[in-house]
Design a protein that fits this description.
The chain has helices at about 15-20, 40-50, 65-85, 90-100, 105-115, 115-125, 130-140, 145-150, 165-170, 170-180, 180-195, 195-210, 210-215; strands at about 5-10, 10, 60-65, 130. It is mainly alpha-helical.
Length: about 220
């Protein structure tokens, strides 16, 4: 990646300056980048730096959109920790420099980095890397009944990772509502006449998939 790809507050910087800020867990940052630019590498590097600074693993929360992305982040962190436990001091120093640490400080911290894997195993508490859905479900599990009542949720609610069956139950109710409401029926038939039945149902399906955004 060229130097022109790195900016801080619209100011052109080199790679070292960029990651000195982006990977510093003491800083609050928002990173914009295209797909494949290394956002996951940077996020896991921030987690690594936070652990190295003494943050307890259970006090770190990383939230992503999909189970796949969360799994990739967990695997990358685990792989790094195992690898760093075996590397020599020169390589460990370079790994920390790549993650925004000044060379002198990186040289001082290689022992901490090398022992980080064993330290985390000893705690028995993992870093929390979750999807938005699983994080919200965890919050609800610890919520008082009054909150569940306010949200109209049953105490024995469960998280649906795959909502295919639940979505399938919506369509009969949708068609019944369309038939019962002349205005809805007219709008539906107008859409079918203009775009075709397949595209109309596809559009409705896409909207259903983003139903939280319309709530």
């Amino acid at each position: 990646m060229s130097q022109a790809a790195y900016r801080i507050d619209d100011r052109l910087v080199d790679r070292a300056a960029f990651y000195a800020v982006a990977c510093d867990p003491a800083r609050s940052v928002a990173v914009e980048a295209c797909a494949g630019a290394g956002k996951t590498w940077m996020l896991v590097s921030r987690i690594l730096r936070a652990l190295l600074d003494g943050t307890a693993p259970q006090d770190i929360l990383a939230i992503t959109f999909t189970k796949k992305a969360a799994g990739e982040m967990r695997l990358r962190l685990q792989d790094w920790l195992r690898e760093f436990a075996t590397l020599d001091e020169a390589r460990l120093t370079q790994e920390l420099v790549w993650r925004g640490m000044a060379p002198a400080e990186a040289s001082r911290r290689v022992g901490d980095l090398k022992g980080l894997h064993a330290q985390l195993l000893a705690t028995g508490r993992p870093v929390q890397i979750r999807t938005f859905h699983s994080w919200f479900a965890a919050l609800l599990r610890g919520a008082p009944l009054s909150v569940l009542d306010e949200l109209d949720l049953p105490p024995d609610h469960e998280l649906l990772e795959d909502d295919t069956e639940a979505v399938a139950l919506v369509w009969p109710r949708f068609y019944a509502a369309v038939v019962a409401d002349p205005s809805l029926h007219r709008d539906f038939m107008d859409s079918v006449a203009r775009y075709g039945r397949h595209q109309t149902l596809k559009g409705l399906g896409n909207a259903l998939g983003k139903r939280v955004e319309f709530a």
